[in-house]
Amino acid sequence: MKLRSILCLAALAASASAAADSELDPGFGIFSSGINLIPINSGGNDNDMVADVLTAADGSLYLVGASTDAQSQSRLTLVHLHANGLLDLDFGDDGRFIAPSGTGNVLAAAATFDANGDILVAGSRRSANGQDFTVCKFRGAGVTQFSALGTPCATVAFDLVPQGLDTARDLVVFPDGRIALVGSAGIDDDHHHAAVALINADGTPDTGFGPGGKRHWLPDDLRQVFLHGVTLQSGSIIYAVGESAKNGSAERRAYAARVSSDTGGVIASSDSLLGTSNGPAYYRDITIMPNGPGYAAGGVFDNGRTCGVLTRLLPGSDYDPDWSAGNGFAPLCAGEHVEFTRMARQSDGKFLVVGMLRDNGFSTADLFVARYNANGSRDVGSFNILLGYREIDFQTPGVFDIGAALTLQGGRPVIAGSVQAAALSNDYDFGVARLQNDLIFRNGIEQMTD
Question: What span, in angstroms and rounded, lies between the C-alpha atoms of 33 and 237?
């Protein structure tokens, strides 16, 4: 056989092996499709929205979100899937558990496990008194109580104005069990403070962090700050990212802040247009390398459209202008609009990011997943060859697949979102898909997430 033929066969073999990364996993979902759709449909307009997806210690999965009831109230909702993506019919009501009305009218935002294996769901509780931060605790197909409160939910009201609009968007659990909730505290439609609440494991506020366990701030030159993602740095620093807007300007700017969990003081903060002239630029999630820098994902206006973006953060929380071949940020432009909503770090140093792609005059949307190398270059060599990304279309009669949330299950990416059941309707179902990710196992490497 000629050398040219041998080289061609070797290249094809390498491509075939690499092509497995990002392909839908036939070992997952209904009919070996790699996907599953779970309608909740408990009433109202059936507007069932996924907020997060979690991998349990046994490899099973939880979809966490909210569904509407017959009174159009939003109820926290859990769906339990076997490791293969099929419904666990012994969990709750045919795999679904809807929180009782006593937990309130809550819009879910994010979820995580605590040290006991209970699921903590962060969100915003709506009432006649406005909207407040809340976190609720679930054990199996049921709620469990915060020991000091005797209730399954702990609620924090910033109330900068009467009936203020306080919105929690993410949470993180400390090694000692404390829970940090991040989001915003509203004054009016145009003015919002960055807001962080710190709750002890028993549900009581950590008053050492601040009065009532709360801290909020708004720099003098800004009119609003919305925190969207959070992680821990060095075990004691709350590292949060989101977006901001300056006084007298409509520009959205990427915002990051490091906050001491001991004193509640802001150690460092920054807002930036990420090298663009007028934005928008914003962050939606953050992860931290062990003993290293933070990385944030979101969106930026680049090449005439909004693109997904990944950045590396400096100790002062600004983005690193020397990263990604000196660009400072790594945009990904496709369709008419891309934005990243969640990210995870593989143990081989690569980053997975998920979000949404909008196209066709913004009349359609698909879930979207991409992989970056540690240096900020897109992984076009082994993740969906030549692109480094792929769309996930659930192929239902609906035209909008929105979200998205991400977990790693045994090294394989599991992406969840909300799938429109019928065009031009408010009827959304829970959707989940798993991708193949074989290359991460080449040297016995297993997955890693924060």
Answer: 42
DSSP letter assigned to residue 213: G
Residue 288's contacts (CB-CB under 8 Å, 6 or more residues apart) are 231, 232, 233, 239, 294, 295, 450
Structural domain that includes position 20: 3-441
Our count of domains for the chain comes to 1
412-420 and 401-409 strand pairing: antiparallel
Residue 449 in domain = no
Q: Is residue 448 part of a domain?
A: no
Quick check: is 447 in a domain? no
Length of the chain: 450
Per-residue pLDDT tens digits for 95-133: 999 999 889 899 999 999 999 999 999 999 999 889 999
The separation between the first and the last C-alpha atoms of the chain, rounded to the nearest angstrom, is: 49
CATH number at residue 140: 2.130.10.10
With 0.90 as the threshold, say if the pTM is over it.
yes
φ, ψ for residue 231 (rounded to 5)?
Answer: -150, 180
Asked, for residue 372, whether it belongs to a domain, the answer is: yes
**How many C-beta neighbours within 10 Å does residue 130 have?**
18
Among 26, 50, 66, residue whose Cα is nearest residue 416: 50
Q: Which of 73, 71, 49, 33 is nearest to 420 (CA)?
A: 49
Ranges of residues in the chain with a pLDDT under 70 are 1-20, 397-398, 441-450
- Burial (CB count <10 Å: 0-12, 13-18, 19+), residue 383: buried
Consecutive H or E run containing 325: helix 323-326
